Amino acid sequence: MFKIKLGILTTLVGVCSFNTQAQRKTISQRVDSVLKLMSLDEKVGQLNQYSGRNLTGPLTEQNRNVQKDIKDGLVGSMLNVHGVKDTRQIQEIAMQSRLKIPLLFSMDVVHGYRTIFPVPLGEAASWDLDIMRQTAHAAAAEAAAAGLHWTFAPMVDIARDPRWGRVMEGAGEDTYLGSKIAKARVLGFQGAKLGATDAVMACAKHFAAYGAVLAARDYAEVEMSEHELWETYLPPFKAAQDAGAATFMSAFNTLNGVPAAASNYLQRDILKGKWQYNGFVVSDWGSIDQMIKWGYVANKKDAALKAILSGCDMDMMSRSYLEHLKTLLAEKKVSIKLLDDAVKRILTKKFEMGLFDDPYRFCNEDRERSTLRNAEFLKLAREAAQKSIVLLKNQDHLLPLQTGIRQTIAVIGPLANSKRDMLGNWTGAGDADNVVTLAAGLKQKFVQSKQLIIVNGTDVKGSDTSGIQAAVDAARKADIVIMALGEGGEMSGESKSRTDLSLPGRQQQLFNAVQAVGKPVIAVIMAGRPLIFGGIANKAHAVIYGWFLGDQTGNALADVLAGDYNPSGKLPVTFPRSVGQIPISYQMYKTGHPWVAAASGYQTGYIDMPNTPQYAFGYGLSYTSFKYSDLKLDKQVITGNGSITASFTLTNTGNCNGEEVVQLYINDPIASVVQPIKKLKDFQKVALKSGESRLISFMIDKDKLAFYNQQLQWAAEPGKFKLLLGSASDDIRLQSEFELK
Ligand code: GLC
């Protein structure tokens, strides 16, 4: 016995030593040296993840059991334990275990930890990859300063059905934009290399195709062709892996009848096989034993078997692995080689995060104090919020408003003064008290105004209309009315699907009453998803989409309303006129009965509504205007691995500085797999001073013309193509043709 203890001690000193000799050992060698020491229980323990909300609180029966499992080396990771004090306390328990294997602490830091940035869909409207990388890095720096090692983000699910509440968490409907944003966010969260104490491990979720749940019912089944899976839903995950995503999370949904956590096709064939992924996969909350409810397995033991065999490495919250893997090994249904593979993937990340060298390296109270909500992050939050705002209508150039005049402004609506709603869902450790509301932002901005009258009028939900008269009275006294309408902050996000996307409650009635007073009305719509508000958009003089912008909501909106920031956002998702049009995206097909405006008869579409959306993907106005001219291609034909450079002149023809998101779409009129009428293949966000012109160039090569063919190969086919340059998917300004030989 003494010899064994000595052996363990010697090896542990080697493994956890701070000297250069241990550093020189490759991580793989260090992983192997730990693996050799581990009992079967300890190996299974690494695959087990618990949620630990309140784990450091009063010692309840459940807390006692969790703490005992940690001490016995039966837990690999905790989620929802955060803050230096709590993570240190729980890590100290793990250090009492036989092998002192450190825990990974994780949390859903989706759009901020303490400083809350715009919800991801809103931020995607900025089309500014650098700002999205920066906010992800800021969120990671705060999370890491709070003792966390791992965030369950970015959510990279493509979603084309805004009834699905989780559309708020992603980057919208487009695969190309979604892939670029996935990369930006992974690099933001993780930094250049894992292990810095101002970065955390990212988690690409939910693998895969969760955004295509049937009828947008959360957690429902997904039935789709492999072609659609590869063409639309997988690329953002591949982009996340290529950016180095340390982990993936499998989805709640089935894919063609198989629960994602048990999908050999997804986790082994594609992720760990074809893509050679070397990180690890965590199940979504309880989704392993949810296979029983799906009717996929009879019991937890079979669920554990299906999940581990199909490549799900860590079990979030179901205890299926803890309770059954040892038996499955004894019954030779699971090989030790397969178990060791899962354990090594997890240990490798713990080494890469430096936790074996110092389990408390993320537990620094001074860094926590100085990092959270620092001035730099607050400034970034305001900038990200500004860039996320989308100007949808500006009749008679009503906006921007003048700040220096004595005017009475009525600020009406249930979201005008709401703090909590502005954080949206997945609020991390955000504090609603920190939020600058729209009303507060306007008060600070329009200090010269004679009066700012703030009236809720109605609640977000509910049928109480008793406040509408006060709102009408305020409108009567006002020179201008700003209305803050939309959803509640928690009406989008997980398990928040809606069948009706109109403004909840009596907000439409409130708008009608106020609008009837006859003063100019600016509608600021706030939500975590596209809403349907045509009745408001048609009557308001100006419409701004404000998403949920986080801590700096009011300052950013006031900056835009006052013209201190010229809005530059573009919609990352199509806004339908009616729920009846859903699923809807700009990537529509001509079909054999192409829709022709003003024609009638046998054409694709509806007899009661045009196919066109309320607002198209890529749409957004500015206080200035931009001219696209002089498109030139440096050649007309691409051969072999060559490319074409398309150049044109962009001019700011308006009287204020501004930014334009120039979008490049490709139309492939004839292909072995029919292609949609256009696909986004590149974009640039360009800042131009008033009157300034600039030559903008795009490179088009074979890869931008490729698609998944009938054999599911990514390939471009010879033929003619159209290049479309525009300010929105439905606002093409220049086009040209070229050929691939
Ligand atoms: C939730 C979500 C997932 C999240 C996880 C942990 O159910 O589906 O996105 O990361 O559980 O909170």
Order of strands, widest sheet = 11-16-15-14-12-13
| CATH topology type of the domain at 384-581 | Rossmann fold
Number of strands: 26
Give the DSSP E fraction (strand runs of 2 or more residues): 15-25%
Q: Cofactors and ligands present?
A: alpha-D-glucopyranose
Structural class: alpha/beta
Going by CATH, the homologous superfamily of the domain at 384-581 would be Glycoside hydrolase family 3 C-terminal domain
Count the DSSP helices.
23
Give the name of the CATH architecture of the domain at 384-581: 3-Layer(aba) Sandwich
Low-confidence segments: 1-20
Report on the architecture of this protein.
This protein has 741 residues and is an alpha/beta fold. Among the domains are: 1-37, no CATH class; 384-581, Rossmann fold, CATH 3.40.50; 626-740, Immunoglobulins (Immunoglobulin-like), CATH 2.60.40. Helices cover 31% and strands 18% of the residues. The protein has a six-stranded mixed beta sheet, sandwiched between helices. Strand 1, helix 5 and strand 2 form a beta-alpha-beta unit. Helix 3 crosses helix 16, helix 18 packs across helix 23 and helix 20 (468-477) packs parallel to helix 21 (507-515). The termini are far apart. Bound molecules: alpha-D-glucopyranose. Alpha-D-glucopyranose is lined by residues 79, 108, 152, 205, 284-285, 494. Residues 79, 108, 152, 205, 284-285, 494 line the site of alpha-D-glucopyranose.
